[in-house]
Design brief:
By secondary structure, the chain is mostly beta strands. It contains one helix and 26 strands. The two termini are 23 Å apart.
């Protein structure tokens, strides 16, 4: 087992908590949606997550547009990504942009080498927990649990929402690169509603230069459960792995300065297809937690260098 250190710290004037091994340092700000603000791969000095840059790192009111906030780090999108109505005609519930969790404070506790963070639902009575568990010095598991406290089933969509910094040419390697990949948000080169394919050996290379454009793709089917980013100069990499039976969908987001002030990209494993809970529920892909029940899944991050 790796030697793990958990400590309190400060990040840009905000109380934070750090969990680290000899290879990786992760830092989180509980009051800002449990945001992971740093994933540092120590051997290469490679910071994988984008910081807030010139934006203020501050809490915003519940229901605010996501792009009005700091646009940094790793957030959790739950129970939707795009704003929509909750799919129950008897309940007048409007779910906010990028879900509820990124704009509410989380609590945290440490037990041994594990760091657990929890948030409470606002539109529905549920709790959402994410526990950071080190599998080894270079591998971090994010273990998720949702507990439904209502007397009715909870329908949900979840997606990891990391904003990976593109400070060097960065290769996105995905399974089933030859597609089809559905473009759900287009730009001048890619049209929303069309499908695309890439050379599996080449992947997609994203460069730091901004163009003012952005695009998002989903694998149009059940994904294989992994994706990878590779720094072309640093040779540092991060692999994101899930149990495809639990987390069957994969989105790829590339923002070349359309929303952020720098180029970022995201690997977004998810439950529910795609982006809106009402659409996922209608299509039969939304997650469900029975009354008084729980649902769980995990996501593993493996860091290294070629």
């Amino acid at each position: 087992m790796p030697e793990v250190h958990i400590s309190r710290s400060m990040y840009r004037g905000r109380p934070s908590v750090v969990t680290e091994t000899r290879l990786i340092r992760a830092e989180l700000v509980p009051e800002l949606g449990g945001k992971i603000v740093s994933l540092l791969y120590k051997p290469a000095g490679k910071e994988w997550l984008a910081d807030a840059g010139r934006r203020e790192l501050a809490r915003v009111p519940y229901g605010s547009p996501f792009a009005k906030a700091d646009m940094s780090g790793w957030d959790e999108c739950f129970p939707t990504i795009d704003a929509c109505a909750y799919p129950d005609p008897e309940r007048d519930i409007r779910l906010p942009d990028h879900g509820e969790l990124w704009s509410v404070p989380w609590t945290w506790s440490a037990s041994g080498d594990r760091l657990r963070m929890t948030a409470e639902g606002a539109a529905w009575p549920y709790s959402f927990s994410r526990t950071l568990i080190w599998l080894d010095d270079g591998a971090l598991r994010l273990d998720y649990e949702v507990r439904n406290r209502a007397a009715e089933p909870l329908r949900f969509l979840w997606a990891a929402h990391p904003q990976f910094a593109v400070t060097e040419p960065t290769r996105i390697v995905v399974p089933q690169a030859d597609g089809p990949w559905l473009c759900v948000y287009g730009d001048r080169r890619y049209e929303a509603g069309r499908t695309y394919r890439w050379d599996p050996a080449e992947g997609i290379v994203v460069r730091p230069e901004t163009t003012g454009e952005a695009r998002k793709f989903y694998y149009a089917g059940k994904a294989e459960g992994w994706s990878r980013l590779q720094g072309e100069r640093s040779e540092a990499y991060v692999v994101c792995s899930v149990d495809a039976a639990q987390v069957p969908y994969l989105g790829v987001w590339i923002d070349e300065g359309a929303f952020n002030d720098r180029t970022v990209c995201a690997l977004e494993p998810g439950i529910g297809y795609y982006d809106r809970l009402d659409r996922a529920a209608e299509g039969g892909t939304a997650g469900k937690v029975e009354p008084g029940g729980t649902a769980g899944w995990h996501l593993d991050l493996t860091f290294g260098r070629r």
